[in-house]
Amino acid sequence: MARQSISRLALAAALLPAVAWAQPAPEALTDSLRINGQKVPVESVGETPLDGIYHVALKGGESFYANADGSYFVVGDLYRNQGDELVNLSEQAKNRQRVAALSAVEESDRVVYRGVDEPRATVTVFTDTSCPYCTRLHESIPELNERGIAVHYLAFPRGGMQSRAARVMQKAWCSDNPGEALSRAFADETLDAGAGCDNPVAEQHRLGLELGVQGTPAIILPDGTMVPGFVPPERLAAMLGLDG
């Protein structure tokens, strides 16, 4: 399994609100933005529907809104209030970011569980073999597959890369049959030490942090919406529009 480098350009583009740039981003934000006197690493700057207010994304995943010279910041979500509809534009941008980032992860670097028939929908799940609710979700995979839902796992050891779960998942990803090995790990069986390999566990952990994963399981729907925690198969099918 080759380790994949997530495209920074794709992430930056996904972060921007869905509006066209009318003019170049202010230099004060792109090249010389300072906070508490310290220059900060800016990933991208995009316009918002508010005149003179920009969306600033920092390297590492944090973002906020600022005026053109960076003298004022607003931290939080930006909403559009129109008629009887309240739309979280910030969350929409995060969803686009997740879709772009996950599209850069090769299927060979995922552990995939799909049914016999062609999946009707696919969810991506950041998982941890030491997490009880991840185990519960894993036990529901046969039912999910029967409902037409394929599950693509990415590794997210909650305790970091020095944790036992990280070592277990590295063994699973390096095995000849990662799906079988991961199922054994969820069943609390000991995996063979193996020879190791150039595995993607550390990179997937970093990606999860960038995308705002705070716990496991973290289920990412096809539109980029993140659903934290265990979700029963029937409820997940309903979220995917497959309950009919």
TrEMBL record:
Cell compartments where the protein resides: Periplasm
One Pfam family hit: DsbC_N
PANTHER family cross-referenced by the UniProt entry: THIOL:DISULFIDE INTERCHANGE PROTEIN DSBC (PTHR35272:SF3), THIOL:DISULFIDE INTERCHANGE PROTEIN DSBC-RELATED (PTHR35272)
SUPFAM superfamilies reported in the protein's UniProt record: DsbC/DsbG N-terminal domain-like (SSF54423), Thioredoxin-like (SSF52833)
Protein's recorded name: Thiol:disulfide interchange protein
InterPro entries reported for this sequence: DiS-bond_Isoase_DsbC/G, DiS-bond_isomerase_DsbC/G_N, DiS-bond_isomerase_DsbC/G_N_sf, Thiol:disulfide_interchange, Thioredoxin-like_fold, Thioredoxin-like_sf
GO molecular function, one term: isomerase activity
Alphabetized UniProt keyword annotations: Disulfide bond, Isomerase, Periplasm, Redox-active center, Signal
Domain Thioredoxin-like fold: 121-240
Natural source organism: Halomonas cibimaris
Domain Disulphide bond isomerase DsbC/G N-terminal, chain residue ranges per copy: 22-90
